[in-house]
Write a structure and sequence with these properties.
Layout: E1 7-15, E2 18-25, E3 31-34, E4 41-46, H1 51-60, H2 62-74, E5 88-91, E6 94-102, E7 108-112, E8 115-120, H3 126-156, E9 162-166, E10 173-176, E11 181-185, H4 193-205, H5 214-223, H6 227-235
Parallel strand pairs: 2-4, 6-8, 9-11
Antiparallel strand pairs: 1-2, 3-4, 5-6, 7-8, 10-11
Helix pairs in contact: 3-4, 4-6
This protein binds zinc ion.
């Protein structure tokens, strides 16, 4: 890596709808970075590079950019939440103010109108409070998945054997074709329900077609015509 060099000028480009900040510096090579958690894209370019050249260079890396931004979207919400009163916590795409109440026994989370109330033990740290919240999140998403399967399995004529919820780093869901078990990412509880519905339908579609091929997409089109918009929303950064 070169020494941190001062920016000579800075400009904004739009690469297929993704805003990119260009910083011209006294350096030899171009550098590209996607910042977490914002997903902001920044490129450092040698000062002799024209904006056209930089743009072309970025278009060649468009797939990589999309992948990086998706990876960041899959990460739990940052900046690191402390699970303390006054913070905002997500549920089904909405922010809810958190109230932490300390009690001597029994931990739980309850939704009271717009607010979430987390009952914590006196000695609990942020990680332990997060576990209480994750347990509750797991209950919320489990209920919703059950309701969605009740609707979609008979509608599609595709039945899973069971489902599981877990934290996944690289995908929203998966389907084991042989055992017919589907897995869903716990993070979906923070996205609008329409995103979870899209992932459930996607995974059930794998019971008809293993691969992401034309047949798979035709099936998706017939089951959920707006699945592309939902996919975009799912991968959007919060
Ligand atoms: Zn798939």
């Amino acid at each position: 890596m070169p020494k941190e060099s001062k920016s000579l000028y800075s400009a904004e480009l739009l690469i297929n709808g993704i805003p990119v900040t260009v910083k011209s510096k006294r350096i030899k090579n171009m550098y590209l970075r996607v910042r977490a958690p914002s997903g902001d894209v920044e490129v450092s370019a040698p000062r002799q590079c024209s904006l056209n050249e930089i743009e072309r260079w970025l278009f060649e890396r468009h797939d990589w950019l999309i992948k990086q931004r998706k990876r960041i979207a899959l990460q739990p919400a940052l900046p690191e939440l402390q699970f303390i009163s006054g913070e905002e916590h997500k549920l089904w795409g909405e922010n809810h103010p958190l109230d932490v109440v300390v009690k001597k026994r029994g931990t739980s989370v309850k939704r009271l109108g717009d607010r979430l109330r987390l009952i914590s033990l006196p000695h609990y740290n942020a990680d332990q409070r997060k576990q209480v919240m994750d347990r509750w999140y797991r209950e919320q998403i489990t209920q919703e998945v059950k309701a969605l399967l009740d609707i979609w399995q008979p509608r599609m004529g595709a039945y899973s054997s069971s489902f599981g919820i877990r934290a996944m780093k690289t995908r929203w869901g998966s389907c084991n074709i042989r055992s017919k078990k589907i897995w869903l990412n716990l993070e979906l509880v923070k996205k609008p329900v329409s995103c979870l519905e899209y992932v459930v339908v996607h995974e059930l579609t794998h019971l008809f077609e293993r691969y992401h091929n034309a047949r798979f997409y035709a099936l998706m089109d017939s089951f959920l015509p707006d699945w592309r918009e939902r996919k975009k929303l799912t991968n959007q950064l919060q």
